[in-house]
Please model this.
Amino acid sequence: MDQILVVFYSYTGTSRRLAQLLCAQLDWPSGEIVERQSRAGGSGTVRCILDTLLRRRPAIRYDGPDPAGYDAVVLVSPIWAYGLAGPMRSFVGEQRAKLRNVAVISVMGSAGASNAVAEIDRLSGRAPLIAAAFTSREVLDGSCARSLQAFGRALQQASPGAAAIAGDKWSPRGA
Ligand SMILES: Cc1cc2nc3c(=O)[nH]c(=O)nc-3n(C[C@H](O)[C@H](O)[C@H](O)COP(=O)(O)O)c2cc1C
Model:
């Protein structure tokens, strides 16, 4: 896999931090999903949960390179209410036709990544080549760095259209 793009959504900054580290490790470009409506305050947090539970697709803007120009796109986003964060659902739905291969990284407190991977599989119409999950703590204290780099190397070595690589084949923490 030669051309790889990292697309991230982050509410409180942790997924952004992980995406920036991955891009720095492998010299990959990135794009950001930005919400059109602010999620500040308590009502914003409630909306996060409702978006996931009701499978809503909030309005977004995408700032970054066209995903159509890449062999694979790494989708990085937080887990909300044991599922996919709404803005990433919007992105995958809107860009579905341009995503040749996807890989998924979930950032979370403790649980819910497998639901997000399953939803991206359904939404994009293709099984992610590789998926991983990191806790916020691992991102914030930097202990995710080695596993993150292993994830990137495994994706570079994956063949387009190959069967999905289970997370536990390359790292101690699969999604
Ligand atoms: C509304 C909301 C719901 C969340 N639900 C979960 C959850 O179900 N499981 C979990 O492990 N973490 C959950 N978290 C924690 C986030 O996934 C975690 O803090 C993540 O690092 C946030 O990423 P971000 O800083 O990029 O937004 C939730 C956070 C928020 C704000």
In short: Strands lie at 4-8, 30-35, 60-63, 72-80, 83-84, 102-108, 131-135. Helices lie at 14-26, 41-53, 86-95, 113-124, 136-140, 145-157.
